[in-house]
Amino acid sequence: MKYVKDLVCISCGEKYEASPTQYLCPKCGEKGILDVEYDYEKIKKDWNKQDLKANPDPSIWRYSPLLPIDPNTPKPPLRVGGTPLYKSNVAKLLGVETLYIKDDGLNPTGSLKDRASAIAVVKAQEAGMNIVACASTGNAASSLAGNIASMGNEMKAVIFVPSRAPIGKVTQLLVFGALVLSVKGSYEETFYLSQEAIDKWGWYNRNAAINPYLVEGKKTSSIEIAEQLNWQMVDWLVYSVGDGCTIAGAWKGMYDLKQIGFIDKLPRLLGVQSEGCAPITQAFKNGTDLVPVAENTIADSIAVGKPRNYIKAIKAVKDSNGDMINVTDDEILNMIKILGKNTGIFGEPAGVAGVAGIKKATENGIIKPTESVAVVVTGNGLKDIKNAEKAVGAPLTLQPDLKELSQLLKDYNF
Amino acid sequence: MKYVKDLVCISCGEKYEASPTQYLCPKCGEKGILDVEYDYEKIKKDWNKQDLKANPDPSIWRYSPLLPIDPNTPKPPLRVGGTPLYKSNVAKLLGVETLYIKDDGLNPTGSLKDRASAIAVVKAQEAGMNIVACASTGNAASSLAGNIASMGNEMKAVIFVPSRAPIGKVTQLLVFGALVLSVKGSYEETFYLSQEAIDKWGWYNRNAAINPYLVEGKKTSSIEIAEQLNWQMVDWLVYSVGDGCTIAGAWKGMYDLKQIGFIDKLPRLLGVQSEGCAPITQAFKNGTDLVPVAENTIADSIAVGKPRNYIKAIKAVKDSNGDMINVTDDEILNMIKILGKNTGIFGEPAGVAGVAGIKKATENGIIKPTESVAVVVTGNGLKDIKNAEKAVGAPLTLQPDLKELSQLLKDYNF
């Protein structure tokens, strides 16, 4: 916590000491989302690009001066971060000249959320707690369970999932030894139950919107992009949006780098929601407060009818002079195929929603063909095989017989 | 191909020019598996540990001097290799003091086989072919499909899978745009059909046992371990064994490093098969030729009743003064849980079979408690959720109600 000054409420501006369990501004309640403030001058004195270049650790901990942790707290051993960034040949297909795709599905438990959960494991220890809980549609859950598991038997994860969560995600967190509670209700109801339980039993709270430290983990995804691009940022940075924390974190990463002089240019943010659940886009476009909506989309990881970090998300998009856009489930399924077939990257529906948003944004004139774009595929497609099946169908079936194969290839015009 | 001298038949010793399509020794037929020979003296002159350390590329291509490729051939863009090696806290649980686990499930398509498929994509181009085919229980297939996809529309993968392959693996390769042929038959029949088709239509052959170059890709898994251990090799190197290529490759990597002076000590190999399909262990133990067996195991990625690279595999284990051992399906399922719960690593059944083998080998006195061990988890657990479900069961289910939760936690002794 060497470089952390305080926590500031994004609604009223009140400042608080950065204790591990200071989750919200008590004055503003649910809207009192806190933001970590750093002493950038001090960081600039102690840390520069050369120090970073000389650091062989590829994980998120290489950015420790910009993380709200005590350097001495034990870190979960999983290698979180350091995911590849590809200059992609689908740029033209999506309507731009230059496109970079970061495959965050290659994080240890298969999603970007490992970046937040790793921080949660550290902060829980700093709070003296060994049980960490969250409500999640899946990835926050499995990343927490996996990172907790990597600590051995020292800590325990309690996970609340809505019963609609895909079996792959639930199985993964059972494998990681978490106590899994499948709640017969919406994400909303699941979330409130987790809050009640956390209050009642005094567990550490890994609900990303409520916990100001987790966004700080998520910001490493955009910081990594900047480093991988040798600090020359693209014109647009694109993320899918559910609860709002990831895109808010991405902006925080850019802001931090600008403050310490690692980058000159800030990108514009494009936030992409699913048409079947787009309350943040709606609030952004209408300039109104958030109106909760139903959760009707296959992209379960961003299906959040009442997102909790919409204020930070909308502020981030506005501050960046960015935009919000929605994509349909069909566009998402189609993008799973386009991306898989042309790049060898297999994303889950929410994971590729951002990429689908680029296509739509170039068609709508939001992103110009000459502008450069970076996008993060936020979760691994292996997490949601059922929806991928919808996208691609079944294989050709045949007997082990060369004649049958010849006929099949002929029919297939191969 | 700057450092490749020739191909040598491991059965008769005949040497051949290293052309991209020299698959087998024509004199020895199926037993005429070829091995790539390098000019180690030349490599030693041109390349040292410092060169390697200075190379920022974390992928398998950092070991190019030890790979049978023309450095100028375009490489598939996916970042293959550079997977994490963890010093593991499950060492004691498995009966040893020091254990390192490499998570190769974090390769781009989720398995170690990316290492071989990346080489196949390069060699096909060197042969002037743009269609690459293989028969596979899944991972060789998806890794080929993914690496081919990353080349854009320049190449095409044709994949023969036995119809028992898990849906997750099949869906993944359909996502990657491969032509997938699901064969109603055993792996054996599937393999022969692929061979006939490859001969008939002149496709490039990615069947690992038949193609001497692919083992050279697989060897990067053990070379990486050596580099990650700062060239101080462990006493035992453990791999699960199906067709025999992976463990043969691992040994080749060790042999190469010894020849060029990067390591002093060679590890002993422990090969682990599934009790329900263990023809290589049988041949190794009995000192007989291989007798094909049925394929009765949940570990589909190593369920190979008639393995094709058993000669190279058995030679590797013998040359290393190593051993072979079998584990049951129950031991494999149990190890999915142990590994997940204690390390946050989620492996598929074949992926954790090697780890289960360590436990058995320490119990049997093959591996001593004071000896150090490294093992590779060869595939991601998300690829085979159905078997993981068998290992872990279902989550606790409840209404969104705090009272019900209190009762549940009490019943659960939490």
From TrEMBL, chains A, B:
<dbReference type="InterPro" id="IPR001926">
    <property type="entry name" value="TrpB-like_PALP"/>
</dbReference>
<protein>
    <recommendedName>
        <fullName>Threonine synthase</fullName>
        <ecNumber>4.2.3.1</ecNumber>
    </recommendedName>
</protein>
<dbReference type="InterPro" id="IPR050147">
    <property type="entry name" value="Ser/Thr_Dehydratase"/>
</dbReference>
<dbReference type="GO" id="GO:0003941">
    <property type="term" value="F:L-serine ammonia-lyase activity"/>
</dbReference>
<keyword id="KW-0663">Pyridoxal phosphate</keyword>
<dbReference type="GO" id="GO:0004795">
    <property type="term" value="F:threonine synthase activity"/>
</dbReference>
<dbReference type="InterPro" id="IPR036052">
    <property type="entry name" value="TrpB-like_PALP_sf"/>
</dbReference>
<comment type="similarity">
    <text>Belongs to the threonine synthase family.</text>
</comment>
<dbReference type="GO" id="GO:0009097">
    <property type="term" value="P:isoleucine biosynthetic process"/>
</dbReference>
<dbReference type="GO" id="GO:0006567">
    <property type="term" value="P:L-threonine catabolic process"/>
</dbReference>
<keyword id="KW-0456">Lyase</keyword>
<dbReference type="Pfam" id="PF00291">
    <property type="entry name" value="PALP"/>
</dbReference>
<feature type="modified residue" description="N6-(pyridoxal phosphate)lysine">
    <location>
        <position position="113"/>
    </location>
</feature>
<dbReference type="GO" id="GO:0004794">
    <property type="term" value="F:threonine deaminase activity"/>
</dbReference>
<dbReference type="GO" id="GO:0006565">
    <property type="term" value="P:L-serine catabolic process"/>
</dbReference>
<feature type="domain" description="Tryptophan synthase beta chain-like PALP">
    <location>
        <begin position="79"/>
        <end position="379"/>
    </location>
</feature>
<dbReference type="GO" id="GO:0009088">
    <property type="term" value="P:threonine biosynthetic process"/>
</dbReference>
<dbReference type="InterPro" id="IPR004450">
    <property type="entry name" value="Thr_synthase-like"/>
</dbReference>
